[in-house]
Specification:
This protein has 56 residues and is of the alpha+beta class. It contains 2 helices and 2 strands. This is 4Fe-4S ferredoxin-type domain-containing protein.
Amino acid sequence: MAKQIIEENCIGCGSCERTCIVGCISQIKNKKMFINSNACVDCGACQLACPSKCIV
């Protein structure tokens, strides 16, 4: 199952985007991050990199 971001807790730092091995995370216009669930391989790298622990 693809990872999801709890948007209200996201600080938009980009750590998850830089860590993603498949490049499925991008920043959207409100400076929050978005995970493309069709491309996510559920590796967990983004979850470990997130300082606000908003990826589940």
